[in-house]
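Give me the fold.
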Amino acid sequence: MGWFDVPLDDERTQLDAAVEGCRGAIEATLDSLTEEQARRRLVSSATTLLGLLKHVTWMQRVWFEECVGGTPRSELGLVPGPDESFRLAEEDTIASARAKVADLPLDAVVTGHRTGPRTLRWVYLQVLRELAQHCGHANILREQILAE
């Protein structure tokens, strides 16, 4: 079921579907690419298609496991900042990046973010904003790779 198929009165399911839809769109940019293509740097930053997937996995874990769950990044085994989250290790593969989502009411106030309390709804919207931005990046990089 896509997010357009979710009943309008079920906000949580809509948000989950939107996050999964955006996440799926980024994952789909890796379809039929080789590991070399997924790692190819086409811009001056460390951004690659595989790096984008690794970064959005990191970002979702920061928001849902650190901010919502209250577990510090160091205990989660996450790198401290977003710049490091794009860097690929040899063991990073297309299949290795996956994330969990917390199961709380949308009005629940979470306190794990450094800037103070947030509702879970706010966290979802922030994750969606970041995912949408990176979907565009991934689409452009895939287009460049396939044009070579």
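The chain is about 55% helix and 5% strand.
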